[in-house]
Amino acid sequence: MTTAPSPNPAATGRGAEIAARVERFVRDVVIPYERDPRRDAHGPLEDLVVELKERAREAGVLSPHILPDGDHLTQRETAMVLRKTGLSLLGPLACNTAAPDEGNMYLLGKVGSAEIKERFLKPLVEGRGRSAFFMTEPAAEGGAGSDPSMMQTTCRRDGNHWVIDGRKAFITGAQGAKVGIVMAKSAEADGAGACMFLVDLPDPAIRIERVLDTIDGSMPGGHSVISIEGLRVPADQMLGEPGEGFRYAQVRLSPARLSHCMRWTGACIRANEIAVDYANRRHAFGKPLIDHEGVGYMLADNLIDLKQAELITDWCADVLDTGALGTVESSMAKVAVSEALMRVADRCVQVMGGTGVSGDTMVEAVFREIRAFRIYDGPTEVHRWSLAKKIKRDWRDKA
């Protein structure tokens, strides 16, 4: 496990200034859109997302985690900024820091060639399109989920192209996306291994079979089951080198897990603000709810869990800023933060009673989103299993 250095005061000062601007924008401009009817069962509709991004562009907070020269903020600065975008479920969409785009931008910035960055990354940074990451596969077919080595989707060389066939599942935002990152396992005799490819969307060879009905509903396009039949991709649209797909997946997933922790901490901060306001205004049995220990103690526990979520996220961010891959640290952060935020969201609902399970505030929606967060980017149990394996390896090394 890596020991994190102290953060650079100048860098965190820059991050704090950007985060403050983002917070003002989200609270003043984005939150009023939460009642906007432009959404379906799977998430906000495209015209709402486009309008929000335009408002962010006007306010100078579109893609605030990426600097004008194309460099990223440090992970610690990104943590400060993404927590503020998360204060509304629409905030990450407006500021262009939502999943899967934020993680895809990070990956392309780290691995993509100059040509790929110009053609595929630049439009994403500019907010001119959404992206999708095609890795997970249908469980019923024995495909890749938390274990990407089980991947069934194949790619094979055909002249100066690769041909991809397979099926994918739970692909967030595929409906309406302009850019796709497709992961497949090489079917070549030389055993090239897993590969990643950049594709323009839509493509007739990539068909959305259905958009799943899921517990969450904040991501445009929802989560789709996809069939890929005879997709031809030019060789120069391979991301990086053949056989490096699994390694590139970790380049993306470690920071992406942390980004989820950042955004959802912001959402739970806001949900807790609403619950605190409710508990102070609502009276029962002759006094405000907050004066009843059963309620006041729940809000006190929320304060503790939110602070712990912030601290572990910042610690993990500092590790990633050292240049370490941070797989172990991101697993610990994913477990600790997702479980802590589930407790926070659940308490907010409980404090607010019937109002907490209604759509009158964002609290009910946050509860559903956090429940889904405990599963995607690796469920809690997979990360604990991975950490237990490391504990065993470390013990053997010392024995």
UniProtKB/TrEMBL annotation:
Keywords: FAD, Flavoprotein, Oxidoreductase. Residues 133-213 form the Acyl-CoA oxidase/dehydrogenase middle domain. Coiled coil: none annotated. GO terms for cellular component: cytoplasm. InterPro entries: Acyl-CoA_dehydrogenase, Acyl-CoA_Oxase/DH_mid-dom, Acyl-CoA_Oxase/DH_mid-dom_sf, AcylCo_DH-like_C, AcylCo_DH/oxidase_C, AcylCoA_DH/ox_N, AcylCoA_DH/ox_N_sf, AcylCoA_DH/oxidase_NM_dom_sf. PANTHER family: ACYL-COA DEHYDROGENASE FAMILY MEMBER 11, MEDIUM-CHAIN SPECIFIC ACYL-COA DEHYDROGENASE, MITOCHONDRIAL-RELATED. Homodimer. Belongs to the acyl-CoA dehydrogenase family. This is Acyl-CoA dehydrogenase. It comes from Sphingomonas jatrophae.
